Amino acid sequence: MLDPVSTYKRLSKIEWFMQRSIALPLFKKRGGATGVLDFIPVVGDGIAGLIGAYIIYEAMRLEIPKLTLFRMIMNLGINTTLGAVPVVGSVWDFMFPANSRNLKMLKDHLEKMGAHLGPDFDAKPFNEPPLNHGSVSPGWQSGPARRGAGKP
Questions:
Q1: Residue 99 — pLDDT band, cuts 50, 70, 90?
Q2: CA gap 64, 125 in Å, rounded
Q3: What percent of the residues of the chain are helix, what percent strand, and what percent coil, each to the nearest 5?
């Protein structure tokens, strides 16, 4: 049988990449590879759908309840179908992150079954920097501000 904690770690990294890996300061939110794949008509949504299907496949291997599995499949099916519609699909993908919702259902099930995932386990799988609500990301600063000028 699969180790639920290591499987969840792996899936949370995939979810982060697909849904939250790109900072969008204008919207004060994060997006991911799903949004980038939307620029490739039909094929991009198909690739995103296959990656989402992999998350569901792994959840199935962890023996989640059939009702939860059905909900996960519906999330992905609706997201992939509506995501294929030009322009509207891009907005839909941003507002309805199916991979995040499916991972949350998996996490709830694993915790109910006694898996110890930790309180902030899936918060920042790659030491994700916080969103800067200003117009410039701290990583883009140069000169004295970046070098820590003014600090004792």
A1: very high
A2: 23
A3: 60, 5, 40
